[in-house]
Amino acid sequence: MNTPCAETPLKLLIVDDDEGDRKHILRLVKRSDLSCDCTEARTMDEALTISEQVRFDCVIVDYHLPGQSGLDGLATLLRRDAFLPVVVTTGKGSERLASEAIKRGAMEYVCKSDLTAGTIQPVLEGVIEQAGLNRLVAEQQTALTVFARVLVHDLKAPLQSVLGFAKLIEAFLAKPDLDKEKLLSLANRISAGAFRMNTLIDSLHAYTEADVRPRMERLTLGKVLDDVLADLHETIRASGARVSYQGLPELDADSAQLGQLFQNLIANSIKYCKVETPEISIRAQWQDGGVWRIEVHDNGIGIPKEQSKTIFEPFRRLHSQGEYEGTGLGLATCKKIVGQHGGTIWCQSEVGRGTSFFLTLPAAGKPRNTAITSH
Ligand code: ADP
How does DSSP assign 150-191, residue by residue? Predict the structure, then answer.
């Protein structure tokens, strides 16, 4: 969102050919509680030149401007930044014209005579907040479109191979001499494709479940891990991994989501490991500000530094299916879950030497801050 934080002054551009009106608006802004860094422009051309160098948080434009018409200039401004909040000021009786400006992308119009120290602040705050929300929604829509595209691609790949092998089986069955071994190998490949689709659907389910508001309860992290290890029993046995933890704290958290989080991290630590015995240790450290910092450390293959943030994006994988199987949704799910609990997640790693995933979770009894962020 583009809402500037309270301490940073808002960058406001006032475009009006009447000096008296510009100064009037400046005075109103000064008398309000807004902290603003104001720039004046007499014409739309001047405004367009200035805004090439400065990124404004809001623009107030007089509807009746000489030179380049206000509406054309508005269109140029909005082409540069589609979410720039623009307020159009009008004289009495020009409201119909001003509504034209709204159709062209201005967010609000006000009659100059209605502008007072009391009204200017809610108008500016309103459009800036609305513009921030519009920007956020557009970003989320873009992310969703990309997500859907990758998902369709990833689901189609195994489906195509299932269809392809099924067709081959049909062709083989039509032949007089049945090669049973060949048929069996084709059937196995169909199973592998179906298995992969199933895994992807399960990961997708876990990823979307992480959007559900957590059902908070007092729990012991050690107990959650006991259950996770029981679920991963077969993977741990087959890999010979050693997983250790002790002295883990009590937390207020959603036990199913927390289980999913640690299951993803531990399963990855086992999967992305080349040494004979994968070693995973989990510990918690008390931090200032009433949060626990939990570390999941492994002796696996490590992650290149430049990928340490991107791996939390959905479908971001560093390896082919041939090297390591996966869906690329595990860490994105972890990030969502930690964010839902008011914490952050990040990783530190050295290629060839292992990785530490760190996450913060608020201590039991502490109100959570649900902003989703990551380092
Ligand atoms: P995947 O299904 O591919 O495992 P994840 O979202 O869980 O998807 O992980 C994203 C990528 O991050 C993985 O493809 C892998 O390259 C890397 N990764 C995750 N965990 C580890 C780890 N413990 N050690 C090394 N690389 C890891």
Answer: HHHHHHHHHHHHHHHHHHHHHHHHHSSS--HHHHHHHHHHHH
- Cα of 49 vs centre of ligand 1, distance in Å, is 47
Residue identified by tokens 């018409």 is 69
pLDDT recorded at residue 371: 39
pLDDT (tens digit per residue) in 164-184: 999 999 998 888 888 889 899
DSSP three-state, residue 308:
coil
Rounded Cα distance, 136 and 190, in Å: 42
Over residues 267-318, the pLDDT tens digits come to 999 999 999 999 999 999 999 888 999 999 999 999 999 999 999 999 999 9
Contact 193, 159 (CB under 8 A): yes
Helix, strand, coil shares of the chain, percent, nearest 5, are 50, 20, 30
Spacing, Cα 284 to ligand 1 middle (Å): 22
Ligand 1: lining residues by beta carbon, under 6 Å: 264, 268-269, 272, 298, 300-303, 311, 316-319, 326-332, 355
C-alpha–C-alpha distance, residues 349 and 265, integer Å: 14
From 202, 317, 356, the mutation candidate for ligand 1 (largest count of ligand atoms within 8 A of CB) is 317
Kindly give the distance from the C-alpha atom of residue 306 to the centroid of ligand 1, in angstroms, as a whole number. 14
Kindly give the distance from the C-alpha atom of residue 260 to the centroid of ligand 1, in angstroms, as a whole number: 15
Backbone angles phi, psi at 98, to 5 degrees: -65, -30
Atom of ligand 1 nearest to the CA of 333: 6
CA distance 273 to 241: 10
Pocket test for ligand 1, best of 269, 274, 279, 311 (most atoms within 8 A of CB): 311
Residue of minimum CA distance from atom 21 in ligand 1: 268
Query: pTM of the full predicted structure?
Result: 0.75
Q: Which amino acid makes up residue 217?
A: E
Q: How far apart are the first and last CA of the chain?
A: 18
